[in-house]
Structures are given as structure tokens and as C-alpha cells.
Amino acid sequence: MTTLTSPSARRKARRFALQALYQWQLAGQPLNEIEAHFRAENDMKKVDLDYFHALLHGVPARVDELDALFAPALDRKVQELSQIEKVILRIGTFELLDRIDVPYRVVINEGIELAKLFGADDSFKYVNGVLDKVARKCRQVEIAAR
């Protein structure tokens, strides 16, 4: 039986969080309304709901800090990123900072998978490079231990 914190349940939570945060970025709708809509309109039985909630509320609460962390790794301004790349990088950076329980390699891989699914053709390569640089800043001890 799958638990709510399984890798699969977390992957689904990230996918829904990406879609919800994309909606927040574009429309500026209140997060509680977006969350209620997603919970009502989607089959959330196999989703880590706590993780979905943490991403949906944690990323906007720290958006300036997150952008400032990954901005030095970009080849353009944050404002010039596609909306999807921006959401993926914000989620990944948030996880690298705030979710020490998730190994950095998992965070990067999940960002790559989201970019393959939702991003432009080669955006997964860009996301990989940026999150790798952010991980080297945020997870030095974990990387050194490998």
C-alpha cells in the first residue's frame, strides 16, 4: 500500500504544486482559493497533501529569497525566464533550502522531470544546470559527504 509520503505521492504533489503556482504567478489569485480549487477538482487520494500545501504556501512566502538564490546561476534575468521554468526553479530551490529530508539529487531529478513534462524542449537541461549550482550553495555538507 502506498503511503502519503511515498516518492510517487510526493511526485504528484510537486506536479499539482507546479500547476497551482503557475496559476498564482499568472493570475495572482489567493493561495487558499487555488488550493481549495485543486483539492476539489482533482483526484488527490494518492497525493502527499502536506507536501502540496508546503510547496504551494512556502514558495510564494519566500519568492524573493528563492529568486535571489538561483539568479546568479542564470544566463538572463529572472523576469525573462518562461513562467514554467520560473516555477520549477522556485520549487526546486525551495526544496533545496527548506526540505533537507529530500536528498539534493532527488530535488534536481524531480525538477528535470517537471521540465520534461511541462517545459520547452530542452528546458530540462537548463533546469538541471541551475539547480545543480543552487545545490552546491545550499547543500555543501550533503554533497561533500558523497
Automatic annotation (TrEMBL):
Superkingdom of the organism of origin: Bacteria
Domain NusB/RsmB/TIM44: 11-136
Gene Ontology MF terms: RNA binding
InterPro entries: NusB-like_sf (IPR035926), NusB_fam (IPR011605), NusB_RsmB_TIM44 (IPR006027)
GO annotation, cellular component aspect: cytosol
Alphabetical UniProt keywords: RNA-binding, Transcription, Transcription antitermination, Transcription regulation
Biological processes per GO annotation: DNA-templated transcription termination; transcription antitermination
Keyword Heme: no
Entries under Pfam families matching the protein: NusB
Keyword Iron-sulfur: no
The protein's role, per its UniProt record: Involved in transcription antitermination. Required for transcription of ribosomal RNA (rRNA) genes. Binds specifically to the boxA antiterminator sequence of the ribosomal RNA (rrn) operons.
PANTHER family: ANTITERMINATION NUSB DOMAIN-CONTAINING PROTEIN, N UTILIZATION SUBSTANCE PROTEIN B-RELATED
NCBIfam families (alphabetical): nusB
Family statement: Belongs to the NusB family.
UniProt-recorded name of the protein: Transcription antitermination protein NusB
Taxonomic source organism: Isoalcanivorax pacificus W11-5
Gene it is expressed from: nusB
